[in-house]
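The protein record minuted underneath.
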Amino acid sequence: MSQYYYMVAGLPDISMDDSKLQLSYTAFMEELLRAFPGRDADLLRLFRLDYDNNNLLAWINNKEAEFHPLGLISPEELKEQTELLEYDERAPLENIPIYFLTFMREWKAELLEEGKEKKRLSELYYSYVLQTPNTFVQEWFEFELNLNNILTALNCRHYNMPVAEHIIGNNSVAESLKTSTVRDFNVSGLFSGMDKLLNLAEEENLLEREKMIDRFKWDYLDEQTVFYYFSVEVLLAFLIKLKSLERWMLLDPKTGEEKFRTLVSSLRSSVNTPADAQIK
């Protein structure tokens, strides 16, 4: 296992209350790319796939769409992979993850439910990243999946929308969220911190609620890395924190409010909801 003594020792102290960044997310990502050997670079790529997912979703709707620079897959590679889809025995191109091939085949065969493309890709993505042999990374993605599902379920309940069709995956937390109607969806014994999330969901200030969610993530990362010292896990945890911190520095209150309402509206538009289920 590689050790990164100088990089970890040189990490700046950051907190959720910082108003300035000493290091940008992109600059730190590029620094890690230069420093990581093969196996650790593979772990870093799992975090970059999120950008590739968004690029793919944009590309299937607009072949001239601008790609996020942190994605690793080019429009040319997607075009070439699409042309090879008819050859079922072909493996994906070298830079294309296997779940992309599954999604693209379903897309080309028009098997994807309209409006559910992002959900389907997310399901395939989490199934893929959860296979990583690195314990910290695997547990982080499982935590992220469960947290996002729980927050989605709480939002659906608040706005009188059916929960099951918005939940990603089929692990024990997901299945409980889909079927249970009790206050905690019967996941308190499956997800540490569920009581805190239930209280957090009652916060009426949307931006404050978002910040509380990010603090919840930071606390999790601190707990999970307490016994790591100069390893790749410390650097990846810092990268995750840096991304959330940079997001807050670029997000003014008006924009944050609009983004949240857009999210809720997109959920509502995909289902038939009661006329009185208005956004508060």
